[in-house]
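Lay summary. Proteins are chains of building blocks that fold into shapes, and those shapes determine what they do. In this project we predict the shape from the chain. Here is one chain we studied, written as its sequence of building blocks.
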Amino acid sequence: MPSADPSAAAVTPLPDLPPPVPAPAVVRRPRSPLLSAVVGFLRVMRANPLTLAGFVLVVLICVTAFVVAVVPPVTHVLLGHAVMVTPYDPNTPTPAVHQGPSSAHWFGTDPVGRDMFSLVLAALPLDLAIGLSVTGFALVVGSSLGLVAGFWDKPRTLGGVVSVVIMRVTDVFLAFPSLVLALAVAATLGRSIVTTVFAVMITWWPYYVRLTRGEVLAVKNLPYVTAARASGVSEVKILFRHVLRNILEPLTIYYTLDVGTVLVTFSTLSFVGVTGSITTAEWGTQVEFFQPYLPFYPWTVLAPGLAIFVTCLAFSLLGDGLRDILDPRSRRALTQAAQPSTIPASAPTAGVGPGAGA
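And here is the predicted shape, written in a compact code that computers can read:
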């Protein structure tokens, strides 16, 4: 008998299967730029706890200063009497004289019985406004001069002459320490809050001139600026559309870090008695006034000193965090660190376990 051929065996046909049903496509709406920025900001904040702490402190300080400054005059107009936000009236003594910190008086009381916590809160709007306004004035004036000095810095042109003049005047101001120069100007103009603020203002802008000019010199010869100039875009549009928009990052960071420095400088001038009146609600003036009581009632000096320290620390932490947030590489690294791992815990790792490498 002939041997059976396996290949000749009858093949049973498979039943016809229904065609696979395609899964419904998931349409994802594009995320708005504002929402993307908020999500990225929150991820960076979660990855950097110090930045989150600085951000929360700055928001709390600004909101508190706004409430303390606005609520009493507004309620006086609407209700006929001012509603105090502070626990006690900062100008009204209480029977508790020289009392240490307690649940009734968190920062203690001064020699006449005034609540130190209320005094510190009453001085917050003025000190914060001085720090923000002086730094803002220096940012606007110094950045404007730095833009001109850096963008039109061309030899044998009118812009080059203007640039040289700006930088030489800046060098003259930078030749003196800012604190010493501000002290001399304030003492010459007279002892008052206004003259002291003006003295700090006119000594603070040169730092922004140097910073802005250096950033402009680094940006103005980049390929996209050269391409814009070759396509016929005017110099003014290039300056604002391409140069200024790309140097806002270091200016914003430096501004945030500089608020605390201005506050310390102004408080130092107030401590040495340049601001004049001791009745002004200002932290440096309070430290000067309560200085003789430091060995016996230290809380009277520590309360305004702690306020200065916390405010400077908050803006410093926020400035350091903004450097990470505004820098694309640092922001990408922090965002990736904040994202949870996508590998499930029960999934085996490649090359590990029984049969690995078999």
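What the prediction tells us: Confidence is low (pLDDT under 50) at residues 341-358.
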